Amino acid sequence: MQVLVTGGGGYIGSILVPRLLQEGYKVKVLDRFFFGKETLSSVSKNPNLTLIQGDTRWFEPKILRNVDVVMDLAALSNDPAGDLDPQKTLDINYKGRARVAKLSKEEGVKRYILASSCSIYGFREGQLDEKSPINPLTTYAKANRLAEIAAKKLASDKFTVTMLRFATVFGYSPRMRFDLAVNGMVLGFFKNRQIPIMRDGTQWRPFIHVKDVAEAYIKVIQSPKEKINGELFNVGSNNQNYQILPLAKEVAHAIRIPFKKKWYGDPDTRSYKISFNKIKDTIGYKTKYTVEDGAKEIYEHLKKGTLTDSLKTRTVEWYKHLLESKKTIDSIVIKNTVL
After folding, report:
1. Helix (H) or strand (E) holding 156
2. In whole angstroms, how far apart are CA 229 and each of 104, 146, 159, 226, 322?
3. Is the CB of residue 178 less than 8 Å from the CB of residue 313?
4. Is the model's pTM score more than 0.85?
5. CA distances from 49 to 18, 63, 211, 217 (A)
6. Which residue from 67, 69, 22 is spatially nearest to 211, judged by alpha carbons?
7. Of 61, 90, 115, 290, whose Cβ has the fewest other Cβ atoms within 10 Å?
8. What is the CATH classification number for the domain harbouring 256?
9. Domains in the chain, number
10. What is the pLDDT of residues 167-226, one digit of tens each?
11. Using CA atoms, how far apart are residues 237 and 187, in angstroms rounded to an integer?
12. Strand, helix or coil at 148?
């Protein structure tokens, strides 16, 4: 089986791609590689891996030939990055992914999996499931919802479409991100002996380890199509819904540093507590890793020096750097290049 992963050089992709190769799949990666190709250096010599430098908005459809599964991860990630240039976010996160889904069906791909986000729920009271009303508050969340709608319309007996709304991701990755809640907390403790927390700490968020994200993809492509076709799944675990202040205390406990906080920003307008029963009951998916696991692994990497904070680890700042250096998302038209 051959899998195409768009955005395969990103935070999740650089964990997912080696995992797919480990399972014996042939893998193509389509990515702009704004964060470099070294994120996949551990598998760069694998004969089953093909790296293609290109853009979801204008790649040549022939790339999809002989592909069985498309995992569509390519996007401007998270809410702050999405608001940096709202129109580009809609172009890439919605129109780009809608194009990938449409071309996948036309080229005979059997399965398409869309990476969406629980941020779509915005601000809601109570525990929410896939049937709950949504409240997308940011361009990033709105683009995700539009991409879901476009993808679901294409589902058919011959084209299996699955949409995955992921909890907030944490954990170590070769393409490290410290602009994610748990990861940023660990870094704050490491550098300043205190944790930065967005006000006012009562907001709810669901969390998932990046390795569990990869396992969700494996579980979905190995599930019978009648269980997943046209379906939307929240992906995470019920016991990893946290309010931000208690989460910060758990991170401190995990890495054995006295809890000390530093408030930042305006009060967060997003708050959502999610039910993950559907994916567990439908295909038997369960997470394995905890916030404690993720905090410990990141802290150990920082202590050993195998992980350092840099401009590339903070997504918005890196995008701003690219914009300032005129390496904008559109200014360099990258032809599809097999690396």
Report:
1. none
2. 15, 18, 8, 6, 38
3. yes
4. yes
5. 9, 14, 20, 17
6. 22
7. 61
8. 3.40.50.720
9. 1
10. 999 999 999 999 999 999 999 999 999 987 888 899 999 999 999 999 999 999 999 999
11. 24
12. helix
